[in-house]
Design goal:
There is one protein chain. Helices cover 18% and strands 32% of the residues. The protein is α+β, with helices and mostly antiparallel strands. It has a seven-stranded antiparallel β-sheet. The longest helix is centred in the N-terminal third of the chain and has 11 residues. The model has no long low-confidence stretch (mean pLDDT 93).
Length: 317
């Protein structure tokens, strides 16, 4: 079997149900809930009034519940914020993390493995297939990549998945996310970034044709006013121990920040970093440094980065 199954139980899950669940979320999230169905999931953000992302999420419909899938540690904060506004709606929220497990399936035989487990496989990004208390949906990638969300009570399916061999080494999965420009909000960075800085506006998290939602005025203004000043870019570096705390410099000045890092099979690191678009367009040189800027430009070793392409990004190198 030329595919890998990964344990992705680093998530939180909120269920929203009730007669007004769809209408309520339509006024809170950046996606268009009218496009949600059992056959199609949505990407979304939940922003504060300043247009900064409290959490990103995938929105799914499973049975009667609208499920909001977000990064581990974000569920309680997201639910607390939603509950401030839900009191006037015929809807309620609950944390469902402990009732589900999540797995990733990727590799050359990923599609055939999903067909073996579900009887069919989603063919395009965002498309989903539900069977009983489980669903599988496809991620954007050149090679087929899927996530499976399954209720813990569905022991038969979980046993079948685990019998195929499941790894908790997520280096390859994280690298695949980086190569697709995927960044998930976690507690350390919540409310730090606008959707535009993380390219969420390019990747389908924001529907600019829907009505109002929390933070919509700021998000829309940034989208329509013209060219973004900063965006998320992908880059690589060799022979340098990079982390999200490494400094990103241009001519000795800090100009960007790293939001995710993964190691490749060749020993290089690939990163997603927020950089000034103008400097990228000019093909300016960027370098990494560990430590601080105190003591001047010559303090600490540096390494040059090489900018790489990203799907859906207008500024390609």
């Amino acid at each position: 079997m030329a595919c890998t199954l990964a344990d992705l139980n680093n998530f939180d899950l909120i269920a929203v149900n009730g007669d007004d669940a769809n209408t309520f979320l339509q006024g809170q999230l950046s996606c268009n809930l009218s496009k949600l169905s059992a056959q199609h999931t949505l990407l979304a953000t939940y922003c504060d009034l300043k247009g900064r992302v409290i959490s990103d999420m995938r929105v799914l419909l499973l049975g009667q519940d609208i499920l909001l899938l977000c990064q581990s540690g974000m569920g309680n904060a997201l639910r607390k914020t939603l509950d401030k506004y839900i009191v006037f709606s015929k809807a309620s929220t609950s944390i469902k993390t402990a009732q589900f497990e999540r797995y990733g399936i990727y590799g050359a035989d990923a599609t055939s493995t999903v067909i073996e487990l579900f009887g069919a496989a989603p063919s395009s990004a965002g498309e989903s297939l539900s069977v009983d208390t489980a669903c599988v949906y496809r991620l954007p990638d050149a090679q087929a990549r899927f996530e499976v969300l399954v209720a813990v009570e569905n022991e038969t399916l979980i046993e079948r998945i685990q019998s195929l061999g499941v790894t908790d080494d997520l280096e390859e999965w994280d690298l695949a996310d980086i190569r697709q420009g995927i960044v998930h909000i976690h507690p350390d960075i919540q409310e730090n970034y606008t959707p535009q800085l993380l390219n969420y506006d390019l990747m389908g998290h924001v529907d600019f044709k829907k009505g109002c939602y929390t933070g919509q005025e700021i998000v829309a203004r940034m989208h329509y006013r013209g060219t973004a000043k900063k965006r998320l870019f992908r880059a690589s570096v060799e022979g340098f121990p990079v982390s999200v705390d490494s400094l990103l410099l241009h001519q000795g000045q800090s100009v960007g920040e790293i939001v995710s890092v993964a190691l490749t099979d060749s020993g290089k690191f690939e990163i997603l970093a927020i950089l000034p678009c103008e400097l990228v367009e000019k093909k300016a040189a960027f370098e990494l440094r560990n430590g601080s800027l105190e003591g001047g430009e010559k303090q600490g070793a540096t390494a040059a980065i090489t900018l790489l392409t990203l799907p859906d990004l207008d500024l390609r190198t």
